[in-house]
Specification:
With 172 residues, the protein is mainly beta. The protein has one domain. Helices cover 9% and strands 37% of the residues. It contains 2 helices and 11 strands; from the N terminus they run βββββββββββαα. Strands 1, 3, 4, 5, 6, 7, 8 and 9 form an 8-stranded mixed beta sheet that branches. Strand 7 and strand 8 form a beta hairpin.
């Protein structure tokens, strides 16, 4: 059974330096917008595996892992798409290590798990969300879905622009 969590208090684990724990937490993830289109995370609350390790000093090493299905339009043909995105992200917070080792998801010892999961998902999304890897997209001339058009779909070739002046000739 997993607990619902927007945030998680790492201090409640009472870990000593070098110790770690793995937790399975249910995290809600809001829908995402890409290219003006909305992509919903299905289901909207995902089970996230959170590995927490206490580093030497007052720091933390974190790892989040989960798989999310994004539902929305295919970026090539606009048909419904539901690709699965596998997330495996790491985060480190070592307060004495400067800005580079300071995590924006930790405030004191409270982890903003919903923000970490959402940002990790966004970084794991492929450049194009498509309905299938071999999606043919839309025809550049008429806009028909090439996945359904068939192999005989073609258009008349445009005339050669070098002969454009001949079209202006009027023989009467």
């Amino acid at each position: 059974m997993t607990a619902a969590a927007h945030s998680f208090d790492l201090g409640s684990l009472q870990l000593e330096p070098g110790q770690g724990r793995r937790l399975d937490l249910t995290v809600p993830i809001e829908p995402l917008r890409f290219g003006g289109e909305r992509y919903s995370v299905v289901p909207p609350s995902l089970v996230v595996s959170l590995d927490v390790s206490c580093t030497t000093g007052p720091g933390w090493a974190l790892r989040v892992r989960f798989t999310a299905v994004l539902e929305g339009p295919c970026m090539r043909c606009l048909d419904p798409a539901a690709p699965a995105v596998v997330v495996d992200a790491r985060e480190v917070d070592q307060p004495a290590g400067g800005e580079e080792l300071s995590s924006p998801y930790l405030d004191e010892q409270v982890l903003d798990l919903a923000a970490l999961a959402r940002d990790s998902l966004v970084l794991a999304i492929p450049p194009q969300l498509v309905c299938s890897s071999d999606c043919a997209g839309l025809c550049a001339v008429c806009g028909i879905n090439l996945n359904h058009a068939g192999p005989d779909h073609q258009h008349e070739r445009p005339p050669d622009p070098r002969w454009a002046k001949l079209r202006e000739l009027r023989l009467e």
